[in-house]
Each structure stands twice: as C-alpha cells, then as structure tokens.
C-alpha cells in the first residue's frame, strides 16, 4: 500500500486528492504549488514503480510515469483530425495540415533523487485467517471433521 506525503509538512494520505486539499487548506498552496506537487508525484511513481524517470509529452507537457501511459495519453488526447481532401497537397509546406499530423515526441525526464520521492510503501500484511474460517463441519453428530468444500464432505461420506 502506498501513501503520499505532503511536500511541506507531516501530512500523508493514500489519495493524492487528499494531499492536494491539505496543501490548499493548510499551506495556502497556489496552482503553481499544486502543479509542482503533481509533477513530483508522477516522478516519484516513475522511480518507485519503473526505476526510471517520468515521460513528458512534448505537445502539452503532461508527465506520465511510464512510456506505455504516455502512449495511451497521446492516442487519446492527440489523435490526428480527419483532413479535408481539398487541403491535402503534394508540396511540403510547414503550414500544411499534414505537418501537424506527426505524433508528439516522447522525452524521458531524468530520475529524481531518492530524497525527493513523496511516495512511501507501507507494509500491509494480510491478516491471519481465523481458525476454521471458510470450513464446513461434517453434519454427523459424532464427527468433528472440517472441510473446505462440499466435494470433500461427499468424499468423506463414501
């Protein structure tokens, strides 16, 4: 389980929205502060989950934690528009609509320092199952056997 730390204080939460609300209410954070927090969060996720720097879309400057998520972003947000056939020309002019159809470049950012990471992994060991949890008792009065499936009870009766 991950927890996200406030960049300015001792607050942490499982959800980034809660940290953003905290930054706004307790630290009077500006939109620039929130944008900086979000960039740091994406960079932290990239380092923790992929061991590398975040990826940046060169068209809109959005940061993504992996190349795969950047490809998804580009496919959804920067799809090429349908061209009017009258606008297509064989001459290669920089202002031609065809020039704008090339996909945005993908640039991988540098890794952030380990001390700048704002995500912590918390140990979350599953609880011990209770004795006999999910088990069925043999319906015979004198028998104390426990079974995990009805098929095992049926085999027990044979």
Automatic annotation (TrEMBL):
Keyword Zinc belongs to the record: yes
Keyword Metal-binding belongs to the record: yes
Record keywords: Metal-binding, Zinc, Zinc-finger
SMART domains hit by this protein: ZnF_C2H2 (SM00355)
Residues of the C2H2-type domain: 136-158
InterPro entries for this protein: Znf_C2H2_type (IPR013087)
MF (Gene Ontology): zinc ion binding
Protein name (Swiss-Prot/TrEMBL): C2H2-type domain-containing protein
Organism: Caenorhabditis remanei (Caenorhabditis vulgaris)
């Amino acid at each position: 389980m991950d927890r996200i730390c406030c960049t300015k204080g001792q607050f942490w939460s499982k959800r980034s929205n809660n940290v953003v609300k905290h930054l706004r209410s307790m630290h009077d954070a500006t939109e620039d502060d929130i944008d900086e927090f979000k960039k740091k969060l994406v960079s932290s996720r990239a380092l923790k989950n992929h061991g590398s720097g975040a990826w940046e879309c060169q068209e809109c400057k959005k940061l993504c934690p992996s190349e795969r998520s950047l490809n998804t972003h580009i496919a959804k947000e920067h799809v090429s528009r349908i061209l009017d056939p009258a606008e297509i020309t064989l001459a290669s002019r920089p202002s031609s609509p065809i020039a704008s159809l090339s996909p945005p470049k993908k640039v991988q950012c540098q890794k952030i320092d380990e001390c700048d990471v704002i995500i912590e992994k918390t140990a979350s060991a599953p609880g011990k199952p209770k004795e006999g949890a999910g088990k069925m008792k043999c319906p015979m009065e004198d028998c104390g056997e426990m079974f995990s499936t009805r098929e095992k009870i049926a085999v027990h009766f044979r």
